[in-house]
Fold:
Amino acid sequence: MISVAEALQRVLQHKAELAIEEVDLLQSVGRVLAQEVIADRDFPPFDRVTMDGIAINTQDFASGTRSFPVAQIQAAGSPQTSLSQAGHCLEVMTGAMLPLNTDAVVRYEDCDLQNNVASVLLEQVVSGQNIHRQGSDKKAGEVLLTSGVVITPAIIGTLASVGLGKVKVYQVPKVAVCSTGDELVEVHASPLPHQIRRSNAFMLAAALRQENIQAALFHLPDEPEIMRQRLASIIADHDVLILSGAVSKGKFDFLPQVLEELGFWAVFHKIAQKPGKPMLFGMLPEQKVVFGLPGNPVSTFVCYQLFFRPWLRASLKLPQVETQAQLTQPITFKPALTYHVPVKLQNVNGTLKATPIATTGSGDLTSLLDADGLLSFPAEQDTFAEGTAFPLTLLS
Structure:
């Protein structure tokens, strides 16, 4: 049995080398960027009017002119015009190119526009007023984005602005989620007294959808030969197997033996943690990865969050997220195991406070309903004081 830290280190040593694919712009939302993005022109590409109003030359205003006859209108999307007569102005619209020979925009709200003459009501007008200067955000040729970032709506806007209708992203692995156990029935079924519905597989599939992975769902019976045949077919079509159940020491936990017959070698089996002690992790031929998660729902969820998600982030070349939260009440836990506790979070004056959620054990799926994160307590201690900070795994 190895520590949580060593288990995570071994998992990350077997990250996947994911290929790069090109997808349509809107299909890239939530994916991980796999290219550098360069500004193909200045941002903004011209001196841009930021308010509807009139464009003037501030030298005219400084010389005492307050009433400006309107020479013409500069609309957004129209070629740049020019102010040719001193003491005049041009009406301009938000987003328009600033007319030549003007250097300030006075809002309509700060003018009295009568009979095609705009009288400025302000005591001061300064050069650059209400103008977004060309290149003030980024210059042509500057790096806007580097690879290894999750594509957000704001990034989509940036990609569109530089003309990228197709975007290079890292491929996500093909993942199979396999539940195990003859006690499990389908979601729509009415379970007998000795049966339960197979919730773990759907919980994992939902978590994977948040990572933009559409997992395939399978169920394996507690029959070694059938399990072996089905797994052989599943392995052939997928890069990663996430298995729920059948990895402990029960008489019907055949999974490790069956996997071994299919060429599996274990990187580790069992972690000094609660919940999730029986977790199995290893490799199959052709660099295929297996996460064998314990069958109790909280154990399944904890192991997915603490080990699969960091593995996926590492494979996608994303940085690992490390944060802490302060415990709001003392906890005692005697076994020499890392203790993962679902917590409710609150931000108090910039400090994350974590309140443990009452649970009856690793089978209590409902304890996760209000959880914002998992607080992990080190195996070297058995008492944990209120106000002390511990590592936090966020669940969003």
